[in-house]
Fold each of these.
Amino acid sequence: GAVVSQHPSWVICKSGTSVKIECRSLDFQATTMFWYRQFPKQSLMLMATSNEGSKATYEQGVEKDKFLINHASLTLSTLTVTSAHPEDSSFYICSSGLGSIGSYNEQFFGPGTRLTVL
Amino acid sequence: DAKTTQPTSMDCAEGRAANLPCNHSTISGNEYVYWYRQIHSQGPQYIIHGLKNNETNEMASLIITEDRKSSTLILPHATLRDTAVYYCIVRTENSGNTPLVFGKGTRLSVIA
């Protein structure tokens, strides 16, 4: 099956710094990728939809100037958490829709990036 | 997408079948039932999906009631590695470019 990778798998940073998280589709092209955030003991919450070559679409309550998304190629989307603060500490997960596997579509998820802001 | 209701948590003895229920009484005719699971600190993993017929793959079986208002995911011989949160999601099939909406899921604990 298709593989989605994320880098880094975990990162610790000081408050006020920016952190970039990469999401790559390794064996397929992804025109659309999704970014989720998951706080401890909670479910995944969609943050934004990333479209190759165009601006991302953000969910209500997600600050687009704080969570910068770039989808410059069909295999790479990046999420930059700018001026990170402790409340941004979370598990960030990307996923990508796939055109088809056999007769149906399936979304593949990256392994996630755990961000800890001190 | 239709709303789903799942129990918060379940326990299962190792080697026994794990039966995870899901209610989706407002499902519409063109919506499928999808199951994903998330092992701790990992991304979600696709398990299985179906429309109205029962489905089976190498991971699990999916039993959908005739009225399609509920379904059950069956892990035939649960192992410790099956401990995870299991999400039942209802959505149209050909929507690979729309995001999955996750509920709270069922936390399955497989006990030795």
Note: Chain A has a mean pLDDT of 90.
Amino acid sequence: GESVGLHLPTLSVQEGDNSIINCAYSNSASDYFIWYKQESGKGPQFIIDIRSNMDKRQGQRVTVLLNKTVKHLSLQIAATQPGDSAVYFCAENMATGRRALTFGSGTRLQVQP
Amino acid sequence: GAGVSQSPRYKVAKRGQDVALRCDPISGHVSLFWYQQALGQGPEFLTYFQNEAQLDKSGLPSDRFFAERPEGSVSTLKIQRTQQEDSAVYLCASSPLSSGYYEQYFGPGTRLTVT
């Protein structure tokens, strides 16, 4: 079936740099997208979401960009900190129909001090 | 407030044994989901409850997997005759809504190892 995927399995950045994590999705019917952060031994933690009627949404130090033309999502983390080290997943959903999230395989972000 | 809790956090089962995994969702949350997460992979959907009704079980991998939420609160995922391929982290998530756009709140998961 259609699923969400990620381009880079591991991203290593220096503390203080900006990080960009990318995600491609293939289900054109998806209209809601979420980024989750998962630390070792913990469940996924919500970071930020975006609906398909938007192309950008900002939170605290994070920005999500959505390009529906090429079915691409990105998560930008400003001034990356060691506490940002984790695995990041994008997930897609639909406001109607199937309620389940479809996750990608994840990108590991490593922040070097 | 209290988040989603799951128990046990770790479970080791011998092949062929039955296991039961418990999820306590956030109080008042209508929707409850179970996901399976293999090592190094993203979570994969297993089943969905709206209150006590199991509305979607399309992700359950075999008839050895069974889930229930009899009173619309606590849920149990049961795996019968466990196999090595069942080894994974089982995540539970809940949400206060059942329609529209909504976030799912995840528990810490139960790591199941089948030996």
Note: The two ends of chain A are 40 Å apart (CA to CA).
